[in-house]
């Protein structure tokens, strides 16, 4: 079912093969790897992304999530929106990949009770604690992804200055101290403050 879904910001399944107990999937090639390796990875894989490129990644990812939630039939909740599942083509256009945890939602269903799955640091609290999955779980994960894109820091890293806290906690602390722009990646020399906020 998911193999029939097409959108410019979703990784395209080209073909598959099933032979006895062996299975293989062939996806389109995306030469710039994942957002995690480009933005958050080691120095050898790291590429400095300017604000227009980061903003385009945000908009493309948003478009794909909206498509999955409202246009795909049946609706789909990805359940694993994170930097390593956002793949980048030669022009750094984003494509969501890895639908291994995705759940299908018929039109009349607003939530399902399910085993909690997804990446630490990206899980919405109500989903992590209660196992009640809604589209909001992807929206929360996307919000965490936005913080990573703006800050250039991983949500799972837990050290900011001398304090031990996660990216989300650090962001709230900066907001309370009216220093929210301190979250912006130092590599971003020019960016429109109103867009970042």
UniProtKB/TrEMBL annotation:
Lineage top rank: taxon: Eukaryota
The Protein kinase domain, residue ranges: 1-197
A Pfam match: Pkinase
Keywords assigned: ATP-binding, Cell membrane, Glycoprotein, Kinase, Lectin, Membrane, Nucleotide-binding, Receptor, Signal, Transferase, Transmembrane, Transmembrane helix
GO MF assignments: ATP binding; carbohydrate binding; protein kinase activity
Record-linked InterPro entries: CR_Ser/Thr_kinase (IPR052059), Kinase-like_dom_sf (IPR011009), Prot_kinase_dom (IPR000719), Ser/Thr_kinase_AS (IPR008271)
SUPFAM superfamilies: Protein kinase-like (PK-like)
Gene Ontology biological process: defense response to oomycetes
GO annotations of cellular component type: plasma membrane
Subcellular location: Cell membrane
Membrane topology: Single-pass type I membrane protein
Family, per entry: In the C-terminal section; belongs to the protein kinase superfamily. Ser/Thr protein kinase family.
Annotated protein name in UniProt: Protein kinase domain-containing protein
